């Protein structure tokens, strides 16, 4: 995992992993000190993707939660750094749902439980409104606001 200034200067490696348990998407904490990222792979068809926290300065990794998913598709910090929201599914046959995880405790709560297949998420700057993409037949059909 590489980080740099916005202009590309001061690039450096903060953490490395071997395949197949590579880093996936990543989310900076609002204070810039922590990166949360899913690691794992779903080639075997089971839920072995987990969230880890990486300290930006030291590169130290720690398991963020004991919970595991088949796939994590979108990840956003809450503005007050009390946790994150994300979309994930527990098995290949399940739809992606919206989840919330507290920080730093790592307590997980599923916030949706329906037939919708949720995709990308976005929060307003104050964290009071959520925009979630809905996937239908492998295409984005529309965005839902909550």
Mean pLDDT: 89
Could you name the CATH class?
Mainly Beta
Inertia-based shape: globular
- Low-pLDDT ranges: none
Strand order of the largest sheet: 3-4-5-6
Q: What percent strand?
A: 35-45%
Number of helices: 0
Describe the structure.
This protein has 146 residues and is an all-beta fold. It has one domain (18-145): 6 Propeller (Neuraminidase). The chain contains no helices and 13 strands. The chain has strands at residues 2-3, 12-13, 27-28, 34-39, 50-55, 61-63, 71-77, 83-89, 97-102, 108-110, 117-123, 130-136, 139-145. It has a four-stranded antiparallel sheet, with no helix packed on it. Strands 7-8-9-10 form a four-stranded antiparallel sheet, with no helix packed on it. A three-stranded antiparallel sheet has the order 11-12-13, with no helix packed on it. A hairpin with a 5-residue loop joins β9 (97-102) and β10. It is globular, with a radius of gyration of 15 Å. The termini are far apart. The mean pLDDT is 89.
Q: How would you sum up this structure in a few lines?
A:
The chain has a single domain, classed as TolB, C-terminal domain (Neuraminidase, 6 Propeller), CATH 2.120.10.30. It contains no helices and 13 strands.
What is the secondary structure topology, with strand pairs?
Layout: E1 2-3, E2 12-13, E3 27-28, E4 34-39, E5 50-55, E6 61-63, E7 71-77, E8 83-89, E9 97-102, E10 108-110, E11 117-123, E12 130-136, E13 139-145
Antiparallel strand pairs: 1-2, 3-4, 4-5, 5-6, 7-8, 8-9, 9-10, 11-12, 12-13
Name a few traits of the molecule.
Neuraminidase, single chain, 146 residues, 4-stranded antiparallel beta sheet, globular, 0% helix, 13 strands, mainly beta
């Amino acid at each position: 995992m590489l980080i740099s200034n916005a202009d590309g200067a001061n690039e450096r490696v903060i953490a490395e992993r071997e395949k197949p348990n590579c880093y996936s998407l990543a989310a900076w904490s609002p204070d810039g000190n922590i990166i949360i990222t899913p690691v794992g792979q779903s080639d075997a068809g089971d839920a072995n993707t987990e969230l880890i926290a990486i300290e930006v300065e030291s590169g130290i990794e720690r398991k963020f939660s004991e919970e595991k998913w088949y796939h994590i598709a979108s990840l956003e910090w809450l503005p007050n750094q009390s946790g994150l929201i994300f979309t994930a599914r527990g098995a290949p046959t399940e739809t992606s749902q919206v989840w919330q995880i507290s920080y730093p405790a790592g307590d997980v709560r599923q916030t949706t439980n329906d037939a919708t297949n949720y995709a990308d998420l976005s929060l307003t700057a104050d964290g009071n409104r959520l925009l979630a993409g809905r996937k239908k037949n492998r295409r984005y059909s529309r965005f839902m606001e909550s």
